[in-house]
Design goal:
Blueprint: E1 8-11, E2 14-22, E3 27-36, E4 54-56, E5 59-66, H1 71-75, H2 80-89, E6 91-94, E7 102-108, H3 111-129, E8 136-141, H4 145-162, E9 180-186, H5 191-203, H6 205-212, E10 217-226, E11 236-243, H7 249-263, E12 278-282, H8 311-317, E13 321-327, E14 329-334, E15 346-351
């Protein structure tokens, strides 16, 4: 990092300087307030956006909801981050014990000091939240019985006809019970955040039913495609999914869902449009059968996976039909989980009808 030109972050119109401090187990990011945005007047004792600062007999107090997994980033190595925040803002920061969900409580004699401390805690939380692995994802299930049967036949024929091609093995095929389209990923760090995500999913019910006209979407899963430029060195092979009437309603639903979840801060936008694809082969499965397809999120480096030669598969099965079915809804699926049907456990869902 160029110390003369440190990276800046804008939080609610205020500009903060990001200082990276190497720690033993993680990188601690310290954010120093460097003043208001151009043209902004900051009133003394201003209340933080979204947080109520109450007056008490001893001064002022504000409680901030923070998932317990993020406490360590507010505390810092041997408590250094908390002490620095308390010293800089002239406040006291009380944090629950590790593993206990609760609120971080900030107290101080001046309202403006508490407001400043709350903002700095929020900046730290937001920064380290982005580094957490995703825990849930919005999905369109493709595990209809007919599609599973078509997938199994595809797998058997590929292994029978193409098993001599480089890298092609049974281990890289998707579990048929978990066939799906990933819409977007979320890092939900406690039960409260899961409930919040479920509530926001329910808010999408109206616009989704407007798009589907209150009916399941008839889909066809036909054709395969690959994600990189060289068909001889492929990591992911996926089935193409389309609405039978040729409309883009499935794409519209996916894009609107991502737009909504990005707007409420539960999802990070990676692409202008959702790349809808039903993974059928993935080289990540070769080493870890629990891997979920994340639509490109958290992609490993090429050295961590062995690509396969898909040229014969594409030539022989390029227009393969996995089957047709009616998609009835969208699910908030939990990573690393399995329900009684073999699909991912659902934290919440909405139907198209």
């Amino acid at each position: 990092m160029d110390v003369l030109r440190p990276p800046l972050i804008n939080i609610n119109g205020r500009i903060y300087r990001r200082n990276i401090v190497k720690e033993e187990h993680y990188e601690e990011e310290d954010f120093s307030y460097v003043g208001p945005s151009e043209g902004e007047d900051v009133a003394e004792g201003e209340t933080c956006d979204g947080h109520f600062i109450e007056q008490t007999d001893k001064g002022y107090r504000c409680a901030v909801d923070v998932p317990s997994v993020l406490y360590k980033y507010i505390i810092g190595k041997k408590g250094e981050t908390r002490r620095r925040l308390e010293f800089d803002t002239k406040t006291t920061i009380s944090i629950p014990k590790p593993g206990i969900e609760g609120q971080i409580v900030i107290t101080g004699s001046q309202k403006a000091a508490v407001s400043s401390a709350v903002t700095r805690v929020e900046v730290l939380v937001e920064s380290f939240r982005k580094k957490q692995p995703f825990t849930h994802f919005l999905s369109f299930p493709l595990n209809d019985a007919k599609v599973q049967e078509g997938f199994q036949k595809f797998k058997d024929e590929v292994l029978r006809q193409c098993s001599q091609d480089h890298g092609v093995s049974e281990s890289i095929f998707q579990n048929p019970a978990k066939l799906h389209l990933t819409i977007g990923t979320l890092a939900l760090l406690n039960d409260a955040e899961v409930r919040k995500a479920c509530e926001h999913l329910q808010e999408c019910q109206t616009f989704i039913r407007d798009i589907t006209e209150g009916k399941p979407l008839p889909l066809e899963v036909t054709g395969i495609e690959y994600m990189n430029d060289d068909p001889a060195m492929v990591d992911v092979l996926y089935a193409k999914v389309n609405v039978k009437d040729g409309s883009d309603r499935l794409q519209m639903i996916a894009d609107r869902l991502v737009e909504h979840f990005v707007s409420v801060g539960l999802m990070v936008r990676e692409w202008d449009r959702v790349k809808l694809h039903g993974t059928v082969m993935n080289t990540l499965f070769r080493k870890d059968t629990t891997v979920e397809d994340a639509g490109g999120a958290g992609r490993p480096t090429p050295s961590e996976r062995e690509a396969f030669d898909a040229r014969n598969i594409l030539k022989k099965f390029g227009s393969y039909s996995f089957g047709e079915f009616e998609l009835s809804g969208v699910q908030l699926s939990q990573r690393y989980s399995t329900d009684c049907s073999g699909y991912y456990s659902s934290a919440g869902s909405i139907s198209f009808s």
